[in-house]
Specification:
It is built from 8 helices and 16 strands. 36% of the residues are buried.
Length: 367
């Protein structure tokens, strides 16, 4: 398996002021090379002072030459800057939003795996203006937050993964307020690593393939799955004493049904696992449940288009745990929330696309 990754952005990418290979992109490259068993080419395409306009001008040529399987954008801080007059940023808010949507559209010509890394900025007293700027370029926290929110909104609307780092770096994580130190780059790398989990899906992990009677007939890599193949999934239905149901919204990084509501816990069975083993593992990994006894329920057969053909073994449990006590795994789960059953019925009727594709089938089993 080979993966080509293109990272577009500005001088933060290549680690301004740092020794070779300690910027966050190089840390990311090193980590993938160490943890994965696939061949990988990662291209750091950062240019000093780059804006979204600049990336748009060169994107087609750069991407066509490399044919990326994943595109990462880390841009926006230069767009948010202004020279002397605060009301006139280098890229207006309206133009910036349009540029983000166009970048997403362009990237989708090559891949569905698109990631935006948000903005970060240190002490603005050091960046108004930036001493190294010969034209009086100014960077402010206020503008950084505004432009960061625009990227976040665009990514949410387009089901694109957004890695938010604006609160993760502190003033002492920057050299001169704009460019992160080695410690700052390590924090960005960790945020990116924790949100993009493809390097853990190595060829050593096989999923269980079954026949129409749920009898095991073989093992396959996920990428080798055919439309006719049937696999196994376990899922957990959680209710509290009020009759409310806990649902989980899937992370934007998920290949199937990203950013949609589904069961509190769900997982595909891998080699050596039973339904019972898998649900215990997934409950701990996804929402932090340990030492909780689940009741085994009914089994559904889900046969949808494409690769969505599986047996779904249900488990149930009643618990009154506050939302803040659930420890969610961010690359799997965006959030969890308690819903009344009436809310769920109304929501799935009015906005079925807010739920995973099999939503109506499994919700009908319990409501």
């Amino acid at each position: 398996m080979k993966k080509i990754i293109c990272v577009f952005g500005d001088s933060v990418l290549w680690g301004w002021g740092l020794p070779f290979r300690v910027g966050w992109v190089n840390l990311f490259r090193n980590y993938i090379e160490d943890k994965s068993n696939f061949e990988m080419n990662l291209y750091d395409l950062g240019i000093d002072a780059e804006t979204t306009d600049g990336i748009l001008e060169r994107f087609d040529i750069e991407a066509e030459a490399r044919k990326p399987d994943m595109v990462i954008f880390a841009t926006g801080i230069n767009d948010s800057a202004y020279r002397k007059i605060k009301d006139y940023p280098l890229t207006t808010i309206d133009d910036f939003e349009k540029n983000i949507y166009v970048l997403i559209k362009k990237a989708r010509r090559f891949t569905k795996e698109i990631v935006f890394v948000g903005l970060c900025l240190g002490n603005e007293r050091l960046t108004m203006p930036l001493p190294a700027s010969k034209t009086g370029k100014c960077f402010t926290k206020e503008n950084a937050i505004i432009y960061n929110e625009i990227i976040k909104k665009c990514c949410f609307n387009e089901n694109v993964l957004f890695v938010d780092i604006i609160e993760k770096l502190k003033n002492n994580d920057f050299y001169e307020g704009l460019h992160p130190t080695k410690k700052g780059h390590e924090k960005i790398f960790k945020a990116v690593k924790d949100n993009i989990g493809f390097w853990e899906q190595t060829n050593d992990v096989k999923i269980i393939i079954v026949d129409k009677n749920d009898k095991v007939i073989g093992l396959k890599d996920w990428e080798d799955l055919k439309n006719k193949d049937i696999y196994r999934v376990s899922a957990l239905w959680i209710e509290n004493s009020k009759g409310e149901v806990l649902l989980a919204r899937r992370a934007l990084s998920k290949s199937h049904d990203p950013n949609r509501w589904g069961p509190a816990v769900a997982g595909t069975l891998e080699e050596g696992e039973t339904y019972d083993i898998n649900i215990v593992k997934e409950a701990e990994e996804e929402i932090g449940l340990k030492n909780v006894k689940f009741q085994k329920g009914q089994k559904s057969k889900i046969m949808l288009v494409g690769r969505l053909r599986y047996f779904l073994q249900w488990y149930t449990v009643k618990m009154n745990q506050p939302l803040e006590k659930f420890k969610i795994q961010e690359r799997e789960v965006a959030e969890v929330k308690w819903f009344s059953k009436e809310e769920i019925k109304k929501k799935i009727e009015e906005n079925p696309d807010d739920f995973i594709n099999s939503g109506k089938q499994w919700i009908g089993l319990f409501i």
